[in-house]
Amino acid sequence: MARPERSTAKPLSINPFQTSQAIGGVLALQGIFRSIPVLHGAQGCAESVQTVLSRHFREPISIQNIAIHEQNLIFGGGEGIREMIRHVMSRHNPDVIALVGTSLTKVVGEDLLGIADDYFRHNKEMFKDKLMFGLYLPDYEGSMESGYAKTVFSVIQKIMQSGRKTVRKKKRNRINLLPGAHMTPGDVMELKEIIASFDLEVIVLPDLSSSLTGHLMTGHTALSRGGVPLDYMREMLASAYTVALGKSMEPCARLLHEGLQIPYLVFNGVTGLRESDEFFLFLRQFSQSEGENKYRWQRQFLLDCMLDTRSVFRGRRIAAALEPDHLVALYQCLSELGIRSFRSVISAPSPSVDALPEVPLLGDLDDLERIAAAGADLWISNSYGQQTARNNNIPYIPLGFPVFNRFGAAARTTAGYRGTAELLNDLANTLNSKGRIS
């Protein structure tokens, strides 16, 4: 049972850093090849989600919108939903189509899922060898992390339902990798390479490493350009093991375990010496292989990096505002360096924070500012916190989502021995400079 986070008595957020569940849902779908999310909500809802994601990743984002107008409040929006499905299928022919209900959909009371299921039943031939599903991701609850995880859960659930009649023999050397919303495309690529070095096959859902990592493509398409293909996703049902990265992804791994008896393991993010060691130990035992020698060298490099930077981190007070899974991954890394305190803020409740020594505050960047005023040597948050950190003369480094003021944020690697060393060097350089990264 999750510990209750302390909440402020403020009636509203003064300086919010929360990102909506819809953003997380759309982000997850970018890691599925030839997919298209269709948001059902207010006019301009899709454009705002697309803008934030595009600014962070500096890549085109596939998305469509079914706008709710005044007449929908009286007559319902069923025909508009059906018309959009017909339009998307005839014009773009996606492999995966996701109907995402927003806050307005819930408030209006539109039966988005019922309409989608009814349309699917009457047009089964249209969706042959395709996947269509729907879910609600209202803004008034959860955050990007929960919206991302719910979307992945819905995808796996739909794949399991569609493949129920197919008997698949388990493939001994195949692993399912379920990265959380806090894992960058660079992190996913690093972990894919590590797993492959043990002669293991890996299926990643969602696979942002091949869709949002900065490739040059010719022509325009309304569909996601990279990610895991649908036919490959179906092979997840025959994998021998599942590795989830982040507590928020555990329900997805548990779904595969309960339905198909696929065992699973949960890591916070494979950041830090201890968890990286545990990850490599799992791979060695699972594959019955020692892996490549370069990772032994990378471990030695990380140990040297920890020795070099320990004096910088010792006794330091950290103030951070991130998604819960990201907070835990960051804390487990910094706790190995002798920091004095790690005080944090989250925007939505999560069981992930049980792993933190001090309960995070459920609030906004204004709350983090008050925490930092009591003493902080480093401010860690997304780009929305940069100005506040500057005003309080606190060294600042951008992490999380969104990051607007850094090139290559999507390619940043914090996973594994190499990624952990890069993260520690970045943080230590910021602390050691006695100034701000701006």
Automatic annotation (TrEMBL):
Gene3D superfamilies linked to this entry: Nitrogenase molybdenum iron protein domain (3.40.50.1980)
Pathway(s) where this gene product acts: Cofactor biosynthesis; Fe-Mo cofactor biosynthesis
GO function terms (MF aspect): nitrogenase activity
Top-level taxon of origin: Bacteria
Pfam families: Oxidored_nitro
Domain annotation Nitrogenase/oxidoreductase component: ranges: 20-431
InterPro entries referenced in this protein's UniProt entry, alphabetically: ChlB/BchB/BchZ, Nase/OxRdtase_comp1, Nase_comp1_CS, Nase_Mo-Fe_CF
Primary role: This protein may play a role in the biosynthesis of the prosthetic group of nitrogenase (FeMo cofactor).
Assigned protein family: Belongs to the NifD/NifK/NifE/NifN family.
Record protein name field: Nitrogenase iron-molybdenum cofactor biosynthesis protein NifN
Originating organism: Paenibacillus borealis
